[in-house]
Structures are given as C-alpha cells and as structure tokens.
Specification:
By secondary structure, this protein is an alpha/beta fold. It has 8 helices and 8 strands; from the N terminus they run E-H-E-H-E-H-E-H-E-H-E-H-E-H-E-H. The chain has an 8-stranded parallel beta sheet. Helix 5 links the parallel strand 5 (94-98) and strand 6 (128-133). Helix 3 crosses helix 4.
Length: 199
C-alpha cells in the first residue's frame, strides 16, 4: 500500500492526490496534520491517516483522535499513553512498533533486541499491534535492515511492514513491505530545513 507523505505540502498538493484517488496519507506531526486534514475527514470517509513521526506522550490523545494508525510506538511509556487514550475513545488503538534497525542514537525506535518485549507490552496494554516500521541508516544498504525487520515481524506473528521511502521503496517491496512511505517521489523535493526522516 502506498502511503503518501504529505508533511509540509500545501493544500493544493493534498487536493490533487485525493482527486487522483490516493486515500492513505502519512504525517509527521500532530499539529500540522490537524491543519491539513481537519476539514477533509468528514468529506472523505475512506481516508486513512497514519502518524509516521515521533510522538510525545502528552500528544497521545490528540494523535488517537486524528490518526487511524500510529506507526511510531517506540517505548512502554508511549504505549501506556496510547492505551489510556484509546480507552477513553472507546477503541483499541492501531499501532506499529518502530524499530531502530541501525541502532542510531539520533533516531527514534526501539532497538532490535528489545522489539519483541515492546510488541508484547503493547499487546498486553490492549493496543492493536499490527506490525513494524523502520527507517534504515542513510549511509547503509537498506536491504539488510528490511530483512531484519521482516524477521522480527515473522517471529511475532505480525503482517504489516512499513518500510521503504522515495529512494528505496523498490528494495522494500522485494523484502516484503506492505506499506511504503513516499513523499518526494510523488510531490517533488520538500523544504530540507524540515526535520529529516520519514519519507
């Protein structure tokens, strides 16, 4: 499935993608997503919004209210916050566990050796843990990282793999990606002063 990454994109770009039939969109920040999508959700019932950026625990309730899927569960404290928000909303929150396959200190994500425990924790808290997400290191071949993510998913009985971006989605598909996050290949290069990462 193609997740169109719409962070920093103007309303016209969103409108064009929707008119072309795109229905799955990824956003990095809760506040920006609220601005982008507040008036569109009611008019487009089959729209799916996915949070693909880091989430602070104090934004968990806002994220649960807006997004269909949170792709960036990376710590037990966030699992607790999402579970509490889901309980108040009366639904199980759909999440992916973000795995820092390259163990990069500047990136979010649970370390690969701790991923199984976080999957279990999320499930125990009542979250609907559907799969895993990763962002390979920019200076390494992506394939081994995608293979590692697939291995972790299989041993945890998870079917969804969100991996692959504009530069490596072909490789990700070969390694079993179910979702690819594509921004610049769809919309053109964005403002590089923005935080790098998710597309």
């Amino acid at each position: 499935m193609l997740t169109a990454v719409t962070k920093t994109q103007p309303a016209e770009a969103l409108a064009a993608a929707i008119a072309a039939g795109q229905r799955v969109f990824g956003e990095n920040r809760v506040q920006e997503a609220q601005t982008h999508w507040a008036g569109l959700r009611d008019r487009i019932p089959d729209l799916e919004l996915r949070l693909i950026g880091p989430l602070q625990t104090n934004k968990a309730a806002d994220a649960v209210a807006l997004f269909d899927v949170i792709e960036t569960l990376d710590r037990p404290k966030l699992a607790d916050a999402l579970a509490a928000a889901g309980e108040k909303a009366g639904r199980a929150v759909r999440v992916l566990v973000q795995v820092n396959t390259g163990a990069e200190p500047q990136k979010a994500g649970v370390l690969p050796e701790e991923a199984d425990a976080l999957v279990r924790y999320g499930r125990d808290r009542g979250l609907a843990v559907e799969g895993l997400m990763c962002i390979p290191p920019a200076d390494e071949a992506a394939g081994p990282h995608f293979a590692l993510l697939r291995k972790i998913a299989r041993r945890n009985g998870l079917e969804v793999l969100s991996m692959g971006m504009s530069g490596d989605y072909g490789t990700a598909i070969r390694f079993g990606a179910t979702h690819v996050r594509v921004g610049s290949a769809l919309f053109g290069e964005r403002n590089r002063s923005e935080t790098p990462s998710m597309e």
